[in-house]
Amino acid sequence: xxxxxxxxxxxxxHLDDLNVAQPRLxxxxxxxxxxxxxxxxxxxxxxxxxxxxxxxSVSRYQDIFAIDTDHQRFSSASGITVGGAAxxxxxxxxxxxxxxxxxxxxxxxxxxxxxxxxxxxxDLQRATVTGVVAPPNLALMEDTIRxxxxxxxxxxxxxxxxxxxxxxxxxxxxxxxxxxxxFPFEDRWKLTRWSDLATTQPGQGVVESPEQRRAELIECLExxxxxxxxxVSAPPxxxxxxxLAHGEATKNMSPFEFLGNLLLLIVGGNDTTRNSISGGVLxxxxxxxxxxxxxxxPTVIPNMVSEIIRWQTPLAxxxxxxxxxxxxxxxxxxxxxxxxxxxxxxxxxxxxxxxANEFLxxxxxxxxxxSFGFGIHRCMGNRLAxxxxxxxxxxxxxxxxxxxxxxxxxxxxxxxxxxxxxLAVKVHPI
Length: 430
Fold this sequence. Notes:
- This protein is an alpha+beta fold.
- It has one domain: CATH 1.10.630.10.
- It has 14 helices and 14 strands.
- It has helices at about 25, 30-40, 60-70, 120-130, 135-155, 165-180, 190-200, 210-230, 240-245, 255-285, 290-295, 300-310, 345, 380-400; strands spanning about 45, 55-60, 75, 95-100, 105, 160-165, 315-320, 325-330, 330-335, 340, 400-405, 410, 420, 425-430.
- The strands form five sheets. Strands 1-2-10-7-3 form a five-stranded mixed sheet.
């Protein structure tokens, strides 16, 4: 598929030949009509051929909700993305000899993470770390987030063009991640790098080859193993590494299970929030009447945050694997088939969300979106993400009349992370 011409109009294709799992479609922001057609004509759609093999697309809100909450018939254990997780068994590598040290490097057997597990193991590992985003901890974080957001905004170059993604979206979320991990602040940009490694295909601007990617992820594991060894020898604390090191369900994890859970927590706390921060600025620029609403009434910000998260849908999909034959809308999904829940499509389903293709910051029931998922795998950091966005927009409102987008955004090459690499802006003070 990747070598073929990118077809922007889905109606040029026979319905059976539609394949929405093309990173170039998302990078070009050209996926919307594909999903419009699927929702209307084939809400349960089988793609026979793609770069990731055959898969089913689920594109309507209610069907996605039904599958997301049915973990018995739709398992996460075989991977959560259409292409499978990096480091799956298909990508196993043999042990490499380190001639300089005379030691064997860790064997790349594929890492696992609790989001790609089924109960009971999923439940036990997830429970180990959920305390970090419990309401009392969130309350303690609020002042810190506000002071850091204020400092970031106060240091922006007024009247000059800059990349909002780097200066604001990444900086705020990376600082937050460093706090959650109790990670050395001076090395916080490593977290951004590892997040990008986990979600970007080799050859698309982050690393050039699977080998380079694997080597850098091993470096990530080694860095965090050092932190683990420090924390396991100290009394338990309320940071994620300490929780994993002392938790009954996680303290005996294999190195690659540790790496998998680290990457899950890094991506979950970084990519999603950072792309919603950028997506909100773009949405307000594309909908100037909504920006006027915000200027007139900043009390709408908490509701606007939910609308931004729906509108952006920072993770475009999640995948499950059928554990038995299931019939939906007259289509039989066979046991073992990949089933892709397109959150990005369900969030624009106007049979479930009124005026779904409009960005409305005062939308009623704005929280009833799919972006955080549902069921046992619902995003555990959803309230933290909402809080970061709320505080940031409150602080933006105090300082700037307008965050102006001055060029077309550059979007990520991915069917999974729906985000931005560059958003050129100018800020205009009050």
